[in-house]
Amino acid sequence: MKYMFASDVHGSAFYCRKMLEAYREEGAERLVLLGDLLYHGPRNDLPKEYAPKEVIAMLNEMKNEIYAVRGNCEAEVDQMVLNFPVMADYCILAIDGLTFYATHGHVYNENNLPPFREGDILIHGHTHVLKAEQREGYILLNPGSVSIPKEGNPPTYAVLEDKVFTIKDFDGNIIKEMRLA
């Protein structure tokens, strides 16, 4: 099964369309959204084509294919307009014998690890900076930001297939790749 991971759409209809196009082109079966879907946040400039209502419509069409966690910009009102759960702080994914602790990153991150076992994988967004690193006792993954990347990175997403985590830009270029087992 192929999974796509994305984070920090921040209400950008432009980048939400790009993300969903990439999802279809990748042939992924699940889209894991790591928070900050609709609101741009007070520290960020408005992303390209800021249109949360359009993002709502696009994501609701995909409701049966999305797993999502709450970001620091999600609020209860967001759950009222989205037809899939978005208020959980984390989800645990068991994929190909690997255990992923998926969260946004504003609570649990490399500086505040969740309770997990050695060899588990922490995947989060929030920083808008892509990562795929082996750490002592765990793997740290971040697909970067779909709409407001930082530290000179392009807008990115990631796919997981056959235990290989690949971060790509929207032109299909591989930015970083890591075998997880």
TrEMBL record:
GO terms for molecular function: hydrolase activity. Transmembrane segments: none annotated. Its EC number is 3.1.4.-. Residues 1-161 form the Calcineurin-like phosphoesterase domain. Keywords: Hydrolase, Metal-binding. Its cofactor is a divalent metal cation. Belongs to the metallophosphoesterase superfamily. YfcE family. NCBIfam families: PRK09453.1, yfcE. This is Phosphoesterase. The gene is yfcE.
